Amino acid sequence: MNPSLLLVDDHEIVRRGCRELLTHAGYHVGHEAATGEEAWRLFRAHAPRLVILDLSMEHMGGLEIIRRVRAHRGHTAVLVFTMHDEPTYATRALKAGALGYITKTSPPESLIEGIERVLGGSVYLSQDIAQAIALSELSIDAGPVETLSAREFEVFQLLVEGHSNPRIAATLSLSHKSVSNYVVRIKHKLAADSVADLVRLAINQGLTKQNVGPLVDGPESTPRPLD
Description:
By secondary structure, this protein is an alpha/beta fold. It has two domains: about 5-140, 3-Layer(aba) Sandwich (Rossmann fold); about 145-205, Winged helix-like DNA-binding domain superfamily/Winged helix DNA-binding domain (Arc Repressor Mutant, subunit A), CATH 1.10.10.10. About 50% of the residues lie in helices and about 10% in strands. The protein contains ten helices and six strands. Strands 2-1-3-4-5-6 form a six-stranded parallel beta sheet, sandwiched between helices. Strand 5, helix 5 (about 110-120) and strand 6 (about 125) form a beta-alpha-beta unit. Helix 7 packs across helix 9. The chain is globular. The model is unreliable at about 210-225 (pLDDT under 50).
């Protein structure tokens, strides 16, 4: 019997392509979600055997979904399928509980192989991300972002993606005060005076590929992405 699959990506064209690829390989995508919030609702309602998800989504990020899935049903396999090819994201996803990490630039057969491997309980990395992780581990000095805790990194990720403090609080189910405290600690650890400094650091480290417009730092302010 085919395992139940939940496919999570905010781009319909990506979901359609994955669904066709998986159907051709003999898998059935039982449910799809375009937002993290919808993915969490479907996961709790249908308890899929495998979750394939992107990391960057509205209302709830991929790292938060991984953490919740692992806490709720530890035997569910999670496979990340994302555009993020920076090893920091891969290691964070694996630490959160994902069994697989595949970049969207990988050949289609990598996704099928990854599904088979993680359903069998093995860890699977696409070739490019495995090489990137290996090279990063040869570096003598860890980047400053590596000093962030798991929760701090989630807040950092949402900050540099342009989310406001209230939005981050809602996404991560935190109080506004907790988010403000995390932002203060993140700035201290990364020697940043403003959110603009954090964005520049993220760009320099390859942790965000978006361009940002004028930045005005304040209690509720965040960078505004350009379309």
